[in-house]
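# step 3/5: fold
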Amino acid sequence: MLPNLIFFDPRPQFVDWLVGYARGRIVIDAGAGVGRLGAMLLERGARCLSLDLEERDEPESPVIMKDATTFEYSRGTLVVLARPCHGNWIYDTIVRTHECGAEVLYVGKPENVENDLEYPGLERRLVGADAGREGEVVYSMKPKPDDKIKYCLVALKTSGIDQGNWWMEDGGDRWINSVGGYRPKGKDEQVLETCWVEDYVDLDHTKTGLLRPEGEADAGWIDRDGKFYGCGSQSHDTVIHLIIKCEVRDVEEKGWMRIYSIERQEWVSNGIRLSAEQRNTASRLGLAIDEDD
């Protein structure tokens, strides 16, 4: 029997968030220790089961003595690894949960993430922060598919200045961009998500800084329904390839407006008359549109 050491002290706001994230699913606290997280979940009416291999002197909620790496998780349950003891069991538990059709959340101190999740076969996505008294972060975890390339959504910084979020191939000690250029990994750069895909275009590029919001973009596209896709002055084709995921000629043949500069009133629509929706959006952006356009 072990003493009542507490490594993870959940913030009430995190427990409230976890109840909402679970959406009625059973929450399984794997490696529960004294069962503090389970106690807080039960107080909120959540369905919770706590597991651990070692019995504690004075548990705060019922804890079942079971091995998380071999437990028969029910499909659709939500498994939480909150400040787990370091070791291979973390990876084994994540793999086991997905074999059973469950989701797993890892909760850990930011400085422990790379050590706990260093295994090349894990894909992670940042879903929460400041979960406990020591600023723990929360990742949704799953094993990676075979024969795919690992990309990370990185909050890049240069000399301490934010450069936005961008997908970068993980090159070990460096980040590799889509054209093969690279930069050393920075200590203050945060990995927001990891993903394994066969091709760079398969990533969700709406999460990056490629698109710019209306009011901040001087260039972009307007589709036939009037939707504006703001971008940099040299990024039109990239937006079509990575966001719309088609060929540029396809949207040009449909009559999309390519805006080179709102300030300079420069745009083309491939000779196709603008739709009413395009006219409305163009006018809102400050473009002067003739009746014949």
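# step 4/5: annotate
Helices lie at 12-22, 36-43, 89-99, 113-116, 236-244, 248-254, 276-285.
# step 5/5: archive (pending)
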